[in-house]
Amino acid sequence: MGKLNGKTALVTGSSRGIGRAIAAGLAREGALVAVHYAHNERAAQETVELIEKDGGQAFTVQAPLGAVGDVDQLFQGLEAGLKKHAGNTVLDILVNNAGETLPAGAAPEDLSPEQFDRLFAVNAKAPLFITQRALGLLPDGGRVINISSGTTRTAIPSQTLYAMTKGALEQLSRGFARHLAPRGITINTVAPGITDNGSEIFKMPEVVEQMSQLSAFKRIGEPKEVADVVVFLATDESRWITGAFIDATGGSLLG
Ligand code: NAP
To answer: Residue whose CA is closest, atom 46 of ligand 1?
Structure first.
């Protein structure tokens, strides 16, 4: 018996990286998982195949966040998938994981209003309105987990805008935590540090060596190491934790 048997979950941005590991972890515990993505349908399908190979259940949902009508598109696909696979539209677990950054960062004096609008739309506005929309589907005892970043607890000038968006996301967790507690719904933040999401930078040994020095363990994180924390927060065992900020940076913030 998995700890999440009979439960349903939506993981935004689970075609790749940390989101894929979260989707796989939730499915391994028995949840039916909606694998959300923006454009990379092949990767989303691969996540579903990985889950099915492991004996789990999943389906894909496409919706580019930050575009007009994004939340409507997401919930149309989600509700259709839930009806098909579970017979109803109950959503027990929502993981707001999809996020964007400025790939090369940006010095504070180079930031543009367009970059501001884009990053806030994807990293803060979308999770707010996804969570709001999910409230009608979440049963008492439901779970919401927001994926932030260790950058909100330190000062990296080139990541200022990104960290601002994640700081907003953390406040979403706190405000909603108090609001939803009467229903037994918990909402928490998990903050990864540098985590190998398979992108090109993680294939460059010198850069990896440099990034490794940030963690107390002197290595970069694996997606499963973040996913394991999220899976715990999705289970009943975490019922006494809400509005929390969980540092999953491998001790990168210890100084
Ligand atoms: P990733 O490998 O870049 O994957 C991003 C995922 O989000 C993909 O599934 C992508 O879908 C989806 N996505 C991106 N922009 C989207 C949009 N506008 N609309 C809908 N879906 C979108 O990401 P990651 O590195 O695993 O990061 C996952 C989360 O952890 C993010 O919130 C990130 O900020 C946070 N984080 C990551 C690290 C790290 O070192 N990796 C560190 C701290 C925090 P497609 O495949 O269709 O593009």
So the answer is: 40
